[in-house]
Amino acid sequence: MKSFFKKIIVAILTFEAKVLIKRKRPKIIAVTGSVGKTSTKDAIYAALKDHTYARKSQKSFNSDLGVPLSVLGIDNAWSNPLLWLKNIFDGAFTAFFAREYPEVLVLEMGVDRPGDMKKLTQWIRPDIVVLTRLPDVPAHVEYFATPDEVIEEKMYLVHALRKDGVFIYNNDDEVVRQAAEEVLQQSFGYSRYSPSHFTLSNDAVLIEKGTPVGMHSTLTHINESVVLQLRGALGVHQLYTFAAAAAVAKQFDVSLADTAKALEQYVPPAGRMRLIESREGALLIDDTYNASPTAVEQALLSLKEIPCKGRKIVVLGDMLELGRFSVGEHERIGVLAAEVADVLVTLGVRARKIAEAALENGLSEKKILQYENVDRAAEELMHRVTETDVVLIKASQGVRAERVTKKLMKHPEDAAKLLVRQGTAWQQR
Fold first, then answer.
1. Are both 209 and 334 inside the same structural domain?
2. Which of 179, 241, 347, 402 is the most exposed place for a label (fewest CB within 10 A)?
3. Maximum CA extent, the chain
4. Strand order, beta sheet including 368-371
5. 3-state secondary structure of 350
6. What are φ and ψ of residue 322, in 5° steps?
7. 6-38 pLDDT, tens per residue?
8. pLDDT tens digit sequence for 120-141
9. Is 315 found in the same domain as 221?
10. Strand pairing of 390-394 and 283-287?
């Protein structure tokens, strides 16, 4: 019954969104990929909002329901039938009668199951597509026969580009780079480790008073270079979002200098390598929004580069929706964790494979702690973390690892502002 009700809601809202797009004809910037979609979408919006009337997808609303909600500018009603009824009426009014409407929509578009992107591209024809990355084992591969099928599904969006559209892509990703060669429209790459139209270089951790507070890097486009600065989060992969934003902004005649200035005010999304102080004065790296193998790998590599006077404590939970790839990918992450972590804490049954692989690859048994209960792990970690430690916390959203961060953070009263899944609907789950 619930599934049937959702199908009706999706059908109605999609129809309203179609009408609205046909009536107002906004430029559509569509962001997809297996990692970094939300951060990239937010950075693009930050770069454009002072130069054009723009709207972005709410949070990570990128599904057959989330995309029409974003187009219509209405909220998710979750499990409230009365609010969904209100949404339908509000959406109809907006679709048929709204006068003011954004000139640009920045939409995040993802896939969970076969056919998802194909359905979205039946009514979304983007002017610009941004493709972040297509890793070997993407998130949500559980419902696909092979990782290649996930890639093929996401590529529907690229093929839906308008004839005069622009394709912006991660030139460091070999699969993405090969896909770009098949695109007939204008294409612009961004990168850190290979030459491209928008190239990052000289990245480093930004240190203030002996504590990491962010990242900075140089971005070069033809003969123009600027320094990009990201505060409040870490990771070279975070800087990719800035390069992508600059590439998009150029299509609207926004200079690199203006983009860099706009991004100084950018606040990274909650749960994406956000820097938070712990009760003991330790540095928490909260990366609890979700976890795919590639994202976990990036987080660990970023932690490896961070200066630390104490221990590097790595808290890793189950990576979900990996299907038959689950065991192998958890073991692969365990091998990398053994190289980075002074202490490894695992959350969940699947994450036991991380612990086993870390043990087999040289991390002492005394330095490995395994939990199935997240709240118990959080409680015990409170008594183990010291002021000189750096603690990375990452897991798939079903693990609810943000509870660990909330327990450890110095100001838990700020959780609603700093952490993911703090809304009433999530707290009741």
1. no
2. 179
3. 65
4. 274-277, 283-287, 390-394, 312-317, 343-347, 368-371
5. coil
6. -105, -5
7. 899 999 999 999 999 999 999 999 999 988 999
8. 999 999 999 999 998 777 667 7
9. no
10. parallel
